[in-house]
Design goal:
The protein has helices at 42-50, 72-76, 95-105, 110-123, 139-151, 169-184, 196-202, 220-225, 227-232, 239-246, 256-264; strands at residues 4-11, 20-27, 32-35, 57-62, 65-66, 79-82, 157-161, 188-193, 205-210, 213-219. The protein has 271 residues and is α/β, with parallel strands linked by helices. It is globular and about 60 Å long. The termini are far apart. Its main location: membrane.
Length: 271
Amino acid sequence: MNKLEIEKLHFAYDKATPVIKGIDLVLDDRKTAIIGQNGSGKTTFVKLLKGLLRPDSGRILLDGTDLKTLTVAQIAKKIGLVFQNPDDQIFKNTVLDEVMVGPLNIGQSLDEARASSRAALAQVELVEVEKVNPYDLNLAQRKMVALASILAMDTPIVIFDEPTMGQDVAGKAIIRKVIENLQAEGKAVLCILHDMDFAAAVFERVVVFSQGQLLLEGEAREVFSKKDTLQQAYLDQPQAMKIAQALGIPGNLLSVEEVMTAIKEDEVKLP
């Protein structure tokens, strides 16, 4: 089912300064992007979903089970989190050993962990560096190693924190394919993003955080069409949508491909 129900969620690191303020939200198997400015509560929110933090009040239900009744180890078998900074996860001396840590920790045998880790490295196109020290790789590659370590755990829910940061076009294409493959396998994918273009092109649903509260949520095309509301959260529309609006193309287009199709079909005349 892969369903997370968040009810009246509150959290503060310092009781005088709340970070999460009464979030009510249901997350299902639709690919979902969580967007918002720095300090809006996004990363704290996903750490609560992962069980790395515990709510001050409210609850999080995973397929009907309250997370407070589960240990972090039990949650790890259900929810995988790829941190924004891969160096927060990496500590082994070879890429393969690093990717195997998660699978071994959730009970896979040595052979199973090795096989699942190599399959995960194939997905992120890093098979050839399995014997390399992760810190001999560049930041974009280390992010892929961290991503592979979570893929190898085969959790039904996968959360990415800023996966496209530092990635070039080829890297973003790999991440997009990974996300699409996860959904095809019936897994739920959540992603914290500052990249509005990637969010618009890849995700079905968008959730907007602002100052620890849920400002807006819905289908990507609908959310990104609400320019004035997005500006309240200091967010911009995707470039393709802004170009389409400037050209007078109707329909709140989300991608360059959609814009080009509209032009080719003579729905708009270029100036």
